[in-house]
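step: validate -> pass
step: tokenize input -> pass
step: predict -> running
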Amino acid sequence: MYLNNTFVHHVHFWLKNKEDKAKLIEGLELLKPIIHIRDMHIGVAADTNRDVIDRSYDVSLLLLFNTLEEEEAYQHDPTHVIFAEQYAKPLCSKVLVLDNVNI
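step: predict -> pass
step: emit ->
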């Protein structure tokens, strides 16, 4: 299946304290009702081992949007702002965002 008209927002989180994984996931779950999100996946590194695989992150978030405008609206949604301020910023030592669009 090819995902046409899709804006992909993929975020990887590295925790300051590994014991906070459940709390970060709890925060990510808060994002589910945001109406701009088309699809959502919360995950952890799979048990795959090849030279090109980075398994150093603790949790990942994959969001699919129909348009760039919907992703931008998500960024300003009050629930996302709460997640960033109360979960991501205090719990994470590093956050890596990879945004991409169809070619």
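step: describe -> Residues 34 and 78 are 9 Å apart (CA to CA).
step: cleanup -> pass
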